[in-house]
Amino acid sequence: MKKIIILVIAVIIGFFIYKFASNPVNQITDQQADLILFHGDGCPHCKIVSDYISNNKVAEKIKISFHEVYYNKTNQNLLAETVKKCPEIDSSQGIGVPLGYDRVNQKCLYGDQPIIDWIKAKMLK
Hints:
By secondary structure, the protein is of the alpha+beta class. Strand 1 (35-39), helix 2 and strand 2 form a beta-alpha-beta unit. Helices cover 46% and strands 14% of the residues. It has one domain (28-124): 3-Layer(aba) Sandwich (Glutaredoxin). The chain is built from four helices and four strands; from the N terminus they run H-E-H-E-H-E-E-H.
């Protein structure tokens, strides 16, 4: 009986961790965002971008819409549609993350450093 209770508690805790990690409280819509950021849970380069955003309080100055793509089919499809707008991205071998989409300039930013560089430039304005 104890094992069942522990299992149920673990499942409930796991559900809430997933739910809150994948759906931030102050979610910005794509239409409001300066940057649409596609990332994957467990992606080391995505973590670099995420840590930079957190450590520099970027969300206070730049509106970012986050889309996790490893476990979310809807976000995977949105990423594929977004990349079609970006001829500078070669998607013939697949699409990787992190990938940011600058809505104003309609440009994709592929990789951690280009995204961080874009954020730095945007924060200076």
